[in-house]
Amino acid sequence: MITMKNIILEGNPTLRTPAEEITFPIGEDIQTMGQEMLEFLKNSQDAELAEKYQLRAGVGLAAPQLDVGKKMIAVHIPNVDDETNEPLLSTVMINPKIVSHSVQSACLAEGEGCLSVNRDVPGYVPRHTRVTVTYLDLDGEKQKIRLKDYPAIVIQHEIDHTNGIMFYDHINNEDPFHLDENVSILS
Ligand code: N9Y
Ligand code: NI
Fold it and tell me: Which of 38, 67, 91, 100 could bridge to 74 as Cys pair (CB 3.0-4.6 Å)?
């Protein structure tokens, strides 16, 4: 079971090294790791399990955060307007790639954090409002999805990890809360 002990922190060079593509066919080891990554996110969002195992709640996780330099990410985004218990998006992606994106950008009003960063880094993190992403699922099937708003932001944070990029790389150094014309704030 993945816990916080398995998550490496900033300063570890793996977080700054572009990860390698995963080759087809996908091995059992990768499949198992993908399942465990998604399980970690679910556990971290379960109040009882999070307390029991001292997990920081997360909506995404990338393999490099586990010190594994491979292009694999997991996302588990809970549904906010809670009528169903169905998550908004819950998946493991292998070799995720943004193949097209909007000109319009968006950022979270509260900025971003990271499970690999144990400090507050204030500032807006502008990201594409809409992205089209291709990836392989855990069965090795090629997939293509369009995402917008919050799920699009989460996926870009995770894909950045597979390319050695941290969220604060996108924050304007001179003026952390500067907003370009084409950037809206998500609320
Ligand atoms: C985990 C990050 C990924 C998100 C940060 C901004 C967009 C993607 C993460 C640190 C603490 C908070 C936590 C979070 C959350 C949100 C809604 C519901 C439940 C992956 N990471 N967080 N960042 N939690 N939990 O570093 O999830 O947003 O690379
Ligand atoms: Ni992160």
Answer: 38
pTM over 0.85: yes
pLDDT at 44 over 80: yes
Which one-letter DSSP state was computed for residue 83?
A: S
Predicted confidence (pLDDT) per residue in 54-90, tens digit? 999 999 999 999 999 999 999 999 998 767 789 999 9
CATH number at 77 reads 3.90.45.10
How far apart CA 134 and CA 100 sit, in angstroms, is 10
Residue 82 CB neighbour total at 10 angstroms? 8
**Which of 39, 86, 112, 158 is the catalytic position?**
158
Q: Which atom of ligand 1 is nearest to the CA of 44?
A: 25
Instruction: Show the domain range for 74.
Output: 4-186
